[in-house]
């Protein structure tokens, strides 16, 4: 920790008594935050605590309703719409914010194109883009269209964009939520390098391990209020979690329940092949939680989409309760009681321009029909039930999904899928962007579901989650299932070795 | 958060909870009527307004169908030509007099028009969904096809309804009244009522909006995206057929210029009504208001003597641009 002296240096950027309301709804209450030169400052809090809002205010994307923002000790009005970049302030948005129709290079240079004699100097821009991406260790092509990139790659482009602008303060709102461990490590290496050069970072994350490893100081928000700011080394992960939720947290993972030995097989997948997935075979028993691990891009999502009827498969078979499922037929999968929750909540999961209710019932409108008309009362009942079950927290029930905090969007997505009342539930990255308290609730929920006789598949890139929840773990690599781990074999190093191809099936 | 609320804040809250985009067209309508009354007192007479409403019936019914197509994220430019084509075929059929009874003739002709309209919509829909072509290109193509077929059927001239008994019987549909209200107004209202029930109260309506706002989300929610888009095109075809059924008794004749620029007027009506051109929101009653506004503007121009009515198309073109600007600024504030 470089610059944190005794009397303290002047903060680069500071919030003084910042409050924010959206319409009549207060979201932040007189919050203070100081960002010192060359520090990584973690901003922690539950879903909806106001982290993204605070970060947007400090980068000019939102204006505070009250309070002051100090830049180098002077009160300023930050210009909106990303123009604060000129003042050296960059924000990596929680919800990816890239224009889909641009190429990677165009997107990196948007608004500050390099020109030569008044014409765009494409070769020069390509070169700088390549260098920036190389520094992050990704091999994304500089001419690729943003719309063709995976979520993780989009995030890397967004990061490269912020870092390449030589910002003095970089705000990162859950940058690692969609990244693999390798990508996260490379990102953190860059952050450490830039920190050594004096750049400051504000880092929002729900992954406590990352926060402990990377940050110098931690500020905790709860329900829009400032709770505490302290040096990271004075805190522990448990203490931070406790400050966030305002109570003692018990064990994160519920006790595992092995399914009965003679529990029936509800799902059988045999030699399934799609474009990328090759020859996948596995079974799922009633009452089981089966984990799917592997690196990002190992084909887990493609396999699950094929099972869920969202994608064609060329060969092989999917059998549910003894009946074979046709390929790419969602009506049949639904009939069979299979439901899949996508990991891309914004692009595939929710209509962000709509309110909560039409999103919740979109997939199950037939259940709310009376004489061919949708019954509002029946929908309202469903909404109440979902709120009770998943604790979707909004301060104003009429908000559009795009105005909800990321974690609450995720809860809504889970609620929407659970409206299907599936016998076999497949969840893909179920706790992306979710705070520890809610994570615990969701784990509990999945565990109860399994114990009640449903079957659950959890696809996750978070190793602790897979290990903590599953009674069996399948590990995928480059489209193939490399092995199945059970009981005491479910350990981080076993998973890693299978995922990286160092070990072949047990 | 149970702080005391003053009456002022509660008023402000109700105001901010009103969707400006939904009410803007109706405010515009009221403003126009007041403006019209100032231009010429004859304007606000019940007779004049009923006249205007009757004349906007064609565009209004077509606009209801266009609301579905546009909400689902597509566009249909062929509606004007489709009117001409369906109307021509309908009259040619009536002229065959295959049934002795004129009533029978008219009824089958009506059914034929509906079927043909739905078929034309199906054609547009299949090309866009199964053919995976841009709806803009497809309907630009069918716009030419329908127009060309009409010109060919009429051999460049007019197609006129010949049977007098059919004419006398069918005339009532446009010129007749029911409890004093002209039939076209009643039929337009009925179409709008059905359209709004379909849009707001049924599964299909929700699916239309979902498909229009994000096709991937719709697909992942188990919605058959192609089928929804196809049905929207067919609904458009059916509403075109209803417009034809109202149109034919008016003049009893069609030509290759029938319905020209109606696509522009229908799309303008939908946009004025607050439906987003990029899909994802449908405002059926707004579209009706939009069609009425368009006709009112023409009527005011006619009754006033300071704007030439030859400028009508230019004014309508201006209105669609203005409507888009208003929509844009309202969305940004939201
Ligand atoms: N534009 C908006 N209009 C209305 N309410 C909003 C808007 N943006 C945010 N909110 C509300 O402000 C509150 C705080 O949201 P914020 O996104 O800052 O939470 P967060 O701490 O980032 O949560 P998460 O961990 O889930 O991302 C939420 O209740 C949210 O619904
Ligand atoms: Mg957030």
From TrEMBL, chain A:
Q: Which PANTHER family does the record match to this protein?
A: CARBOHYDRATE TRANSPORT ATP-BINDING PROTEIN MG119-RELATED, D-ALLOSE IMPORT ATP-BINDING PROTEIN ALSA-RELATED
- Write one Gene Ontology MF term: ATP binding
Domain of life where this protein originates: Bacteria
Q: What is the recorded name of this protein?
A: Sugar ABC transporter ATP-binding protein
Q: Which InterPro entries match?
A: AAA+_ATPase (IPR003593), ABC_carbohydrate_import_ATPase (IPR050107), ABC_transporter-like_ATP-bd (IPR003439), ABC_transporter-like_CS (IPR017871), P-loop_NTPase (IPR027417)
Taxonomic source organism: Marivivens donghaensis
Keywords, sorted A to Z:
ATP-binding, Cell membrane, Membrane, Nucleotide-binding, Repeat, Sugar transport, Translocase, Transport
- Gene3D superfamilies reported in the protein's UniProt record: P-loop containing nucleotide triphosphate hydrolases (3.40.50.300)
The reply on keyword Membrane is: yes
Instruction: Tell me yes or no: is Disulfide bond among this UniProt entry's keywords.
Output: no
Which residue numbers delimit the ABC transporter domain? 13-248, 261-503
Q: Enumerate the SUPFAM superfamilies for this protein.
A: P-loop containing nucleoside triphosphate hydrolases
Automatic annotation (TrEMBL), chain B:
Q: What compartments host this protein?
A: Cell membrane
The protein's organism comes out as: Marivivens donghaensis
Q: Where are the transmembrane segments?
A: 20-40, 52-71, 77-94, 106-127, 181-200, 228-248, 260-277, 284-304, 310-326
InterPro entries hit by this protein:
ABC_BtuC-like (IPR037294), ABC_transp_permease (IPR001851)
Q: Tell me, what's a Pfam family for it? A: BPD_transp_2
Task: Kindly state which keywords UniProt assigns to this record, in alphabetical order.
Answer: Cell membrane, Membrane, Transmembrane, Transmembrane helix
Major subcellular location class: membrane
Q: Which CDD domains match?
A: TM_PBP1_transp_AraH_like (cd06579)
Q: Would you tell me the protein name for this molecule?
A: ABC transporter permease
Q: Could you tell me the membrane topology recorded for this protein?
A: Multi-pass membrane protein
**Source organism, top-level taxon:** Bacteria
SUPFAM superfamilies, A to Z:
ABC transporter involved in vitamin B12 uptake, BtuC (SSF81345)
């Amino acid at each position: 920790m470089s610059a944190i002296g005794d009397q303290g240096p002047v903060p680069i950027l500071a919030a003084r008594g910042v409050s924010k309301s959206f319409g009549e709804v207060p979201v932040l209450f007189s919050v203070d935050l100081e960002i010192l030169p060359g520090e990584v400052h973690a901003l922690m809090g539950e879903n909806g605590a106001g982290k993204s809002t605070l970060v947007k205010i400090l980068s000019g994307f939102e204006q505070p309703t009250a309070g002051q923002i100090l830049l180098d000790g002077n009160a300023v009005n930050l210009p909106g719409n990303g123009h604060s970049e000129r003042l050296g302030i960059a924000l990596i948005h929680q919800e990816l914010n890239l224009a889909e129709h641009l190429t990677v290079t165009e997107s990196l240079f948007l608004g500050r194109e390099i020109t030569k004699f008044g014409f765009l100097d494409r070769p020069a821009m390509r070169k700088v883009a390549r260098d920036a991406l190389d520094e992050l260790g990704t091999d994304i092509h500089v001419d690729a269209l943003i719309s063709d990139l995976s979520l993780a790659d989009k995030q890397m482009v967004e990061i490269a964009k912020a870092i390449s602008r030589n910002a003095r303060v970089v705000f990162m709102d859950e940058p690692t939520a969609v990244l693999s461990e390798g990508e996260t490590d490379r990102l953190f290496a860059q952050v450490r390098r830039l920190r050594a050069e004096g750049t400051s970072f504000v880092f929002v994350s729900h992954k406590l391990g990352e926060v402990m490893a990377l940050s110098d100081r931690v500020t905790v928000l709860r329900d829009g209020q400032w709770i505490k700011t302290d040096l990271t080394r004075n805190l522990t992960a448990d203490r931070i979690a406790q400050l966030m939720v305002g109570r003692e947290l018990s064990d994160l993972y519920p006790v595992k329940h092995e399914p009965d030995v003679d529990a029936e097989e509800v799902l059988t997948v045999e030699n399934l092949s799609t474009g990328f997935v090759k020859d996948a075979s596995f079974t799922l028993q009633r009452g089981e939680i089966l984990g799917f691990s592997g690196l990002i891009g190992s084909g887990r999502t493609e396999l699950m989409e094929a099972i869920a009827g969202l994608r064609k498969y060329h060969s092989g078979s999917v059998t549910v309760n003894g009946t074979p499922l046709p390929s790419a037929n969602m009506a049949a999968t639904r009939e069979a009681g299979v439901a899949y929750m996508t990991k891309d909540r914004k692009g595939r999961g929710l209509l962000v321009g709509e309110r909560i209710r039409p999103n919740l019932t979109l997939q199950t409108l037939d259940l709310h029909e009376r004489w061919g008309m949708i019954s509002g009362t029946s929908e309202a009942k469903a909404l109440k039930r979902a709120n009770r079950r998943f604790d979707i927290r909004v301060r104003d029930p009429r908000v559009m999904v795009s105005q909800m905090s990321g974690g609450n969007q995720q809860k809504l997505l889970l609620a929407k899928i659970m409206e299907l009342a599936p016998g076999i539930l497949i969840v893909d990255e179920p706790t992306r962007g979710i705070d520890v308290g809610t994570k615990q609730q969701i784990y509990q929920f999945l565990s109860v579901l399994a114990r009640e006789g449903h079957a659950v598949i959890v696809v996750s890139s978070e190793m602790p989650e897979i290990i903590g929840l599953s009674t069996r773990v399948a590990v995928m690599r480059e489209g193939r299932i490399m092995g199945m781990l059970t009981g005491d074999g479910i350990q981080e190093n076993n998973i890693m070795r299978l995922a990286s191809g160092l070990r072949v099936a047990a | 958060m149970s702080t005391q609320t003053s009456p002022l804040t509660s008023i402000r809250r109700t105001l901010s909870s009103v969707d400006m985009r939904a009410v803007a067209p109706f405010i515009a309508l009221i403003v126009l009527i007041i403006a019209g009354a100032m231009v010429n007192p004859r304007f606000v007479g019940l007779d004049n307004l009923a006249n205007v409403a009757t004349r906007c019936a064609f565009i209004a019914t077509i606009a209801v169908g266009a609301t579905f197509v546009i909400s689902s994220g597509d566009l249909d430019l062929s509606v004007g030509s489709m009117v001409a084509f369906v109307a021509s075929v309908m009259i040619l059929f009536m002229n065959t007099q295959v049934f002795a009874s004129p009533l029978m003739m008219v009824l089958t002709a009506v059914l034929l028009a509906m079927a043909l309209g739905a078929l034309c919509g199906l054609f547009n829909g299949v090309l866009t969904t199964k053919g995976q072509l841009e709806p803009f290109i497809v309907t630009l193509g069918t716009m030419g096809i329908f127009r060309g077929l009409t010109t060919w059927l009429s051999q460049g001239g007019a197609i006129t309804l010949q049977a007098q008994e059919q004419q006398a019987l069918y005339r009532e549909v446009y010129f007749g009244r029911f409890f004093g209200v002209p039939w076209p107004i009643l039929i337009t209202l009925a179409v709008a009522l059905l359209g709004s029930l379909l849009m707001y109260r049924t599964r299909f309506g929700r699916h239309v909006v979902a498909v229009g706002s994000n096709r991937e989300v719709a697909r992942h929610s188990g919605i058959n995206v192609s089928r929804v888009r196809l049905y929207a095109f067919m609904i458009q075809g059916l509403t075109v057929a209803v417009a034809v059924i109202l149109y034919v008794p008016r003049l009893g004749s069609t030509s290759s210029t029938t319905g020209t620029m109606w696509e522009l007027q229908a799309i303008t009506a939908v946009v004025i009504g607050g439906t987003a051109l990029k899909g994802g929101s449908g405002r059926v009653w707004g579209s009706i208001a939009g069609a009425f506004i368009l006709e009112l503007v023409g009527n005011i121009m006619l009754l006033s003597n300071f704007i030439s009515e030859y400028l009508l198309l230019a004014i309508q073109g201006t209105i669609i641009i203005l409507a888009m600007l208003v929509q844009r600024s309202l969305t940004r504030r939201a």
